[in-house]
Amino acid sequence: MADLKVSVVSADHEVWSGLAKQIVARTTEGEIGILPGHEPLLAILAAGEVRVTTLEGAVVKANAEDGFLSVEHDTVTIVARNAALV
């Protein structure tokens, strides 16, 4: 199975980046799960928690609001006006 290359970015700094096997985020359309091979996607984030499951199985949590989530070729970029690790 392929890996996801993930970057969580706030307006003024990178909050977290690395390889992951799964991401769960809250969008304006509802909660979404991203796995390797996901179709390209651009979604507006709703205020809430983003959960990134690393390759080792650890879960990295970040609060994010006012931004978007982009998925393309197993690269996930989460850009938010406000984002911080929990």
From TrEMBL:
Record's superkingdom?
Answer: Bacteria
Bilayer topology term = Peripheral membrane protein
A Pfam family annotated for this UniProt entry: ATP-synt_DE_N
**Where in the cell is the protein located?**
Cell membrane
Q: Where is the ATP synthase F1 complex delta/epsilon subunit N-terminal domain?
A: 4-83
Keywords in UniProt for this one? ATP synthesis, CF(1), Ion transport, Membrane, Transport
Q: Does the keyword Membrane apply?
A: yes
What SUPFAM superfamilies does the annotation carry? Epsilon subunit of F1F0-ATP synthase N-terminal domain
Q: Among its keywords, does the record have Membrane?
A: yes
InterPro entries from the xrefs?
A: ATP_synth_F1_dsu/esu, ATP_synth_F1_dsu/esu_N, ATPsynth_dsu/esu_N
Using the UniProt record, give the first listed, main subcellular location. membrane
NCBIfam families assigned to the protein according to its UniProt record, in alphabetical order: ATP_synt_epsi, PRK13442.1
Family note: Belongs to the ATPase epsilon chain family.
| Subunit note | F-type ATPases have 2 components, CF(1) - the catalytic core - and CF(0) - the membrane proton channel. CF(1) has five subunits: alpha(3), beta(3), gamma(1), delta(1), epsilon(1). CF(0) has three main subunits: a, b and c.
Recorded protein name is: F-type H+-transporting ATPase subunit epsilon
Taxonomy of origin reads: Bacteria, Bacillati, Actinomycetota, Actinomycetes, Micrococcales
